């Protein structure tokens, strides 16, 4: 497929329309850099599915940090040239891959395929780079030895499967230069490769870090006031999930109200949460991808000190007709699960 051809492939559930994609190969171990001169054929179902699965999953990943370009960022200049059509997609993706290859040459050992994507999410244009870390795998081979078939094994490098979560990727909003990126690859260096060596950008807390800190603080405050922390944590998750489903930012006041509503010391607990939130530099509002949150915030898992593990929909915690926590004078807790019609064994 030529670069100027757009194979527009849409995933309505995620609001993503993929336009073009290209694959470049970087192997710092052998000092090999193979930049493709043609885009991927997205009309082939297997290629289309592979690119879509990784793009959708990464774009909605709660691990992503929000960043802004630093002054004189070469990557920002490259994005502007692409957006204003001074450079085409193949040229832009090749230069972006070459920026990464420059760092890799000084830190040999990595073998990476760079999947670069040009797409729109809810009509906003994005440029993305997904790093596909090569992995060793065993495969069978068949040879002829003295006219006899000889089957054996061989090791080969393979790409991560379409269902595997990637450890490093970045997306640039071409309208306002906002950046989403995740880099959890073990590069064996103190450098944050995507942030410092490629993008040259700032990095804020990821949505996952913010949500984890919110639930951690809610847990601490409930324990401080000798209340059941599971109810407070489930309240935080309900608030996050509700705002994501309605596609609106979550104000911290709403999360606090949901977490501590019904407690005897509601106002004191809310004030304690607010103080700890500011100390932890948790932002005043949170806006996260709907697809990721609705799935991730669906259930609340509990584990007792007696070794029992339970998982409930977060909505159950605010309905005493379905689940109730009974606190006894000796400090122990009874969890009563109500209105059960059937119990199934799950291995």
What labels would you give this structure?
347 residues; alpha+beta; two-stranded antiparallel ribbon; 9 helices; 33% helix; globular; disordered N terminus
Quick one: biggest sheet?
A: 8 strands, antiparallel
Catalogue the unreliable spans: 1-13
Euclidean distance between termini CA atoms: 48 Å
How many strand units?
Answer: 16
Shape: globular
Number of helices: 9
Helix content percent band: 25-40%
Instruction: Give the rounded overall mean pLDDT.
Output: 84
Classification by helices and strands: alpha+beta
Taken in chain order, the helices and strands follow as: EEEHEHHEEEEEEHHHEHHEHEEEE
Measured by DSSP, the beta-strand proportion falls in: 25-35%
> Rg, please?
25 Å
How many structurally independent domains?
2
Q: Explain this structure to me?
A:
There is one protein chain. The protein is α+β, with helices and mostly antiparallel strands and 347 residues long. The protein folds into two domains: 9-132 and 160-199, no CATH class; 207-337, no CATH class. It is 33% helix and 29% strand. The protein has nine helices and 16 strands. It has helices at 45-59, 74-83, 89-105, 193-199, 207-224, 229-245, 252-260, 266-279, 290-296; strands at residues 9-11, 16-27, 32-34, 65-67, 111-121, 124-133, 135-145, 148-158, 168-173, 179-183, 250-251, 285-286, 299-303, 309-313, 323-327, 333-337. Strands 1, 2, 3, 4, 5, 6, 9 and 10 form an eight-stranded antiparallel β-sheet that branches. Strands 7-8 form a two-stranded antiparallel ribbon. Strand 13 (299-303) and strand 14 form a beta hairpin. Helix 2 runs antiparallel to helix 3 (89-105). The longest helix is centred in the middle third of the chain and has 18 residues, at 207-224.
């Amino acid at each position: 497929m030529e670069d100027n051809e757009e194979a527009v492939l849409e995933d309505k559930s995620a609001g993503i329309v993929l336009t073009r994609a290209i694959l470049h190969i970087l192997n710092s171990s052998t000092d090999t850099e193979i930049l493709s001169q043609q885009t991927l054929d997205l009309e082939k179902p297997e290629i289309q599915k592979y690119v879509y699965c990784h793009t959708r999953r990464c774009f909605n990943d709660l691990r992503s940090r929000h960043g802004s370009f630093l002054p004189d960022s070469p990557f920002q200049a490259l994005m502007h040239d692409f957006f204003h059509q001074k450079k085409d997609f193949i040229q832009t993706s090749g230069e972006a891959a070459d920026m990464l290859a420059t760092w890799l040459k000084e830190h040999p050992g990595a073998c990476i395929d760079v999947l670069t994507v040009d797409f729109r999410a809810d009509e906003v244009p994005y440029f993305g780079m997904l790093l596909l870390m090569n992995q060793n795998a065993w495969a069978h081979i068949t040879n002829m030895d003295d006219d006899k078939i000889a089957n054996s094994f061989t090791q080969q490098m393979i790409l991560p499967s379409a269902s595997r979560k990637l450890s490093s990727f970045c997306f640039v909003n071409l309208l306002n230069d906002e950046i989403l990126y995740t880099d959890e690859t073990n590069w064996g260096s103190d450098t944050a490769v995507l942030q410092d060596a490629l993008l040259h950008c700032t990095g804020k807390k990821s949505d996952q870090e913010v949500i984890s800190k919110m639930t951690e603080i809610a847990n601490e405050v409930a324990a401080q006031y000798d209340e059941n922390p599971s109810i407070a944590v489930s309240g935080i998750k309900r608030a996050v999930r509700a705002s994501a489903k309605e596609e609106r930012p979550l104000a911290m006041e709403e999360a606090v109200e949901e977490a501590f509503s019904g407690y005897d010391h509601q106002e004191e607990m809310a004030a304690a949460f607010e103080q700890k939130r500011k100390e932890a530099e948790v932002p005043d509002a949170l806006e996260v991808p709907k697809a990721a949150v609705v799935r991730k915030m669906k259930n609340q898992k509990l584990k007792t000190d007696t070794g029992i593990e339970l998982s409930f929909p977060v909505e159950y915690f605010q309905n005493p007709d379905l689940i109730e926590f009974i606190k006894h004078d000796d400090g122990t807790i009874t969890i009563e699960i109500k209105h059960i019609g059937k119990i199934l064994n799950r291995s």
